[in-house]
Write a structure and sequence with these properties.
Shape: globular
Distance between the termini: 9 Å
Order of helices and strands: HHEEEHHEHEEHEEEHEHEEHHHEEHEEH
Strand content: 15-25%
CATH architecture of the largest domain: 3-Layer(aba) Sandwich
Strand order of the largest sheet: 4-12-11-10-7-5-6
CATH superfamily of the largest domain: Type I PLP-dependent aspartate aminotransferase-like (Major domain)
Number of helices: 13
Oligomer: single chain
Number of domains: 2
Helix content: 25-40%
CATH topology of the largest domain: Aspartate Aminotransferase, domain 2
Structural class: alpha/beta
Largest sheet: 7 strands, mixed
Radius of gyration: 22 Å
CATH class of the largest domain: Alpha Beta
Number of strands: 16
Length: about 450
């Protein structure tokens, strides 16, 4: 990272980074023989040894065998303070007693009832009351499903085919928006624009507006680096969609936790459809999509032209019961605001690590969700991170694991309720030591 002395030459830097990485990998591998063996065995039966690509990292991912509060324990007995909380789904921690009791009670009355149950109506009311843009809602099993169903609803409601999204956005495993590569995408006709660039969106809408069913956007782009949308950008999307009769979909699968009524509440923007997922199911599988009665009435079986939307586990009693107590009781507006305030403080402290040392290290995000980057410039869209130092981020990830901290390999941090001030302080101190110890590995990117 840039210092008051000249950066090492590229060949020297590469050697230093290679040596540091080799040492970190060696310590990691020696410390985790059981996880290494379990991964090797898993590879016999599952490609890559897993069924969730985002959980893999080299040389092998840890196998976690237990969780409690904000802690995880791996197969080799090491404890980790969990700073990713299952990519924000584990906001309640790993063993919330109230949620466990509610699920135990629900399961005692039957696990798979195959009929409407007493919890789903209550959870639906909680969701609609918390998010004013959602006048009625339907449940599903993941954010991926929620986004695909929202897009299908928009296409049917408008009788149009095309969808506009943003490069680098991730709306679930079947709708990843990249110009190239092998990411999966449903066969919709998709137009791609640069995030936070109104002019590019405006041009595409002017050219394709009459056949454009929906614009789908995360108010803070998540998988692409926790990059907030500017208020002007998001307001412009609302104006454009209203002008051209296009459905505006806010993917708030992650950002819904950034305010009691989602990020849309902070922005005072009302989308036509909102999609949800992650934590609202109390830590169990969950997805939801909802919006205006005008759009959602397409799913009303009382009408003859209904859109069929089924799913065996859409209203599974575990997710519904956990959601009622988790979202409805534990995660009150005050609790959520306190968690996001703690996230703002943590992000500011981490930002100072780079600023005070004059190094290319920064943390983007909002509230309790953020992403670490080894990069000096402004970050307004995922394309801006093309020059970020991903090898140094990989080294940080391994060294954090070696030090007992669990974050996502891409640098994502999502806070959970059980994290303590001591946990946060220890995390910042560990990051500071890493930056100080590896200042010669940086560059001026």
């Amino acid at each position: 990272m840039a210092t008051d002395r000249a950066d090492p030459q590229p060949t020297e830097r590469n050697r230093l980074l290679s040596d540091a990485m080799a040492a970190a990998v060696h310590r990691y591998s020696v410390a985790n023989p059981k996880s290494r063996q379990l991964h090797k065995e898993a590879c016999q039966w599952m490609p890559g040894g897993n069924t969730r690509t985002g959980l893999y990292y080299a040389p092998f991912p840890l196998t976690m065998v237990r969780g409690a509060g904000a802690s995880l324990w791996d197969a080799d007995g090491h404890r980790y303070i969990d700073f990713v909380s299952d990519f924000s789904a584990g906001i309640f921690g790993h063993s919330n007693a109230v949620i466990r009791a509610a699920v135990t009670e629900a399961l005692a009355s039957g696990m798979s009832l195959g009929a409407p149950n007493r919890y789903e109506r209550e959870l639906a009311e909680l969701v609609c009351r918390r998010f004013p843009s959602i006048e009625s809602v339907r449940f599903c099993n993941s954010g991926t499903e929620a986004n695909l169903l929202a897009l299908c609803a928009a296409r049917t409601a408008t009788n149009r085919n095309k969808v506009l999204g943003f490069r680098g956005a991730y709306h679930g495993s079947l709708f990843t928006l990249q110009d190239a590569g092998r990411a999966l995408r449903m066969p919709f006709e998709v137009l791609l624009a640069r995030y936070n660039l109104v002019e590019e969106v405006d041009e595409l809408v002017e050219r394709h507006g009459t056949d454009l069913a929906a614009i789908i956007v995360e108010p803070m782009i998540g998988n692409g680096g926790c990059i907030p949308g500017t208020p002007d950008f998001l307001l412009a999307l609302r104006r454009l969609t209203e002008k051209h009769g296009i459905v505006l979909i806010f993917d708030e699968v992650i950002t819904s936790r950034l305010s009691p009524g989602g990020l849309q509440q902070k922005l005072a923007i009302k989308p036509d459809i909102t999609t949800l997922g992650k934590y609202i199911g109390g830590g169990f599988s969950f997805g939801a999509f909802g919006g205006s009665h005008r759009i959602m009435k397409q799913f009303d079986q009382c009408h003859t032209s209904v859109i069929a939307h089924s799913g065996t586990f859409n209203n599974n009693v575990a997710s519904m019961a956990a959601g009622v107590v988790g979202f409805g009781q534990i995660l009150s507006p005050d609790v959520l605001m306190d968690l996001n305030a703690a996230g703002d403080v943590l992000r500011s402290r981490l930002q100072r690590v780079g600023q005070e040392r004059g190094v290319p290290f920064q943390v983007s995000g909002l509230g309790s969700v953020m992403n670490i980057h080894f990069y000096m410039g402004d970050i307004n869209a995922p394309e801006d991170l093309a020059g970020a130092d991903r090898e140094l981020l990989r080294l940080l990830h391994l060294e954090l694991l070696n030090s007992g901290f669990h974050i996502a390999s891409r640098g994502l941090v999502a806070l959970s309720l059980p994290l303590t001030k001591t946990d946060l302080d220890a995390f910042v101190s560990t990051i500071e030591r890493f930056v100080d110890d590896h200042k010669d590995l940086g560059n001026s990117r």
